[in-house]
Design a protein that fits this description.
single chain; alpha+beta; 7-stranded mixed beta sheet; about 35% strand; globular
Length: about 375
């Protein structure tokens, strides 16, 4: 049974994101919801005006585990004008940033779904760290070599061997967030309620690749999906070898024979490719601790930077100098000082990684 708080959150999410279905919200409440990590803000009349939750996760940073916070389930009342909405969102997110700092998060990631959300997050210290672009992996250019030891099938039962495969092989790219077991199965469930399929490649019974696939209408010029021409969307794919990756994509064509195109979403630097769109945003939470990690990971890096303004976490304000694997602090900010989001964005933009869509309902 849902609490009054959950009902208010559901109402606000659907008002903010009309395309969000009840099944996806149900998955969030069953797999991700944690009231201890929740922040809400109310309007003068007592109605909920904004809400968000943060998740503590690990990010792979040059083969080091970085503690990060992920801002998720962000919603606000779209009927409020900016001059009323921004202070409300700021109030809610300040509490989240303080909680993240207490839990040891070094940076915070967010995945806004529209320009207004990006503007709101920018007002809270976030900076765009990466863009994303849709692309076709060109399955037609691949010629598979017959291998009877590899069997690919659709799976409707989600055994724990799927999670163990991900735990051993997933989350290893630079700046990639490692999913928890709940995250992983929530991702599969979200694809399932969207009418998608899970396909699994095995060699001698051992999993060597997984892919989530679903069919969608190819976008028309109006932006609406076609009901006549279709394409295959790959929300997530993980394989131990490139050959297995392409075999999974080939198998997807047998499930959707009327699909004219296969699409994956690829991360790229901000404004890195024509047609790309903003993706992840980032802001610093514990500046000195983050830059100590950077210095230890990249001992040859020489960097002088600083943060001039941080309403939520004023302890971050000051200068930072990286030399010979050490981070030195100063109360004086150099000319190269930037915003709370500017410092981590520099590093994330250098090697953008796409995060599993479980952390953002609409990207």
């Amino acid at each position: 049974m849902q609490s009054d708080l959950q009902r208010h959150m559901r109402t606000l999410w659907k008002k903010c994101r009309p395309n969000l279905d009840d099944e996806t919200i149900d998955i969030y409440f069953s797999e991700t919801y944690d009231p201890a990590m929740l922040s809400t803000a109310e309007e003068e009349g007592g109605e909920m005006a904004a809400c968000s939750q943060f998740l503590m996760r690990h990010m792979n940073f040059m083969d080091r585990n970085l503690h990060i916070g992920i801002l998720t389930a962000l919603a606000y009342n779209p009927e409020l004008e900016d001059e009323k909405l921004l202070p409300t969102v700021k109030e809610s997110l300040k509490r989240q940033h303080l909680r993240m700092a207490r839990h040891g998060a070094l940076i915070s990631l967010a995945f806004p779904s529209n320009e207004r959300e990006r503007q709101l997050l920018q007002g809270c210290g976030y900076t765009i760290a990466s863009h994303c672009i849709e692309g076709d992996p060109k399955v037609t250019e691949y010629t598979p070599v017959p291998d009877p030891s590899i069997v690919i099938d659709e799976e409707t039962e989600w055994g724990r061997d799927l999670w163990l495969f991900y735990a051993r092989n997933g989350g290893g790219h630079n700046f990639e967030v490692k999913m928890t077991e709940n995250d992983f199965f929530a991702l599969i469930a979200q694809n399932d309620v969207a009418g998608g399929h899970l396909i699994v490649a095995r060699r001698h019974g051992h999993i060597i690749g997984i892919a989530l696939i679903r069919r969608e209408g190819k976008p028309l010029k109006s932006g609406k999906p076609s009901n006549k021409t279709f394409r295959t969307r790959i929300p997530y794919i993980l394989a131990v070898q490139q050959d297995v990756f392409y075999r999974l994509l080939e198998h997807a064509k047998t499930i959707y024979p009327d699909s004219k195109q296969t699409m994956v979403t690829i991360a790229c630097p901000p404004k890195g490719f024509e047609g790309s769109r903003p993706y992840a945003m980032v802001r610093i939470i514990r500046a000195e601790d983050f830059l100590k990690e950077v210095a230890a990971t990249l001992p040859g890096l020489q960097l002088e930077t600083g943060i001039t303004h941080d309403e939520d976490l004023p302890e971050n304000i000051g200068g930072y100098r990286l030399r010979r694997g050490k981070c030195y602090t100063s109360t004086e900010c150099p000319p190269s000082a930037t915003t709370p989001g500017g410092i981590p964005a520099i590093f994330m933009a250098s090697q953008p990684a796409l995060l599993p869509p479980v952390y953002g309902w609409e990207v």
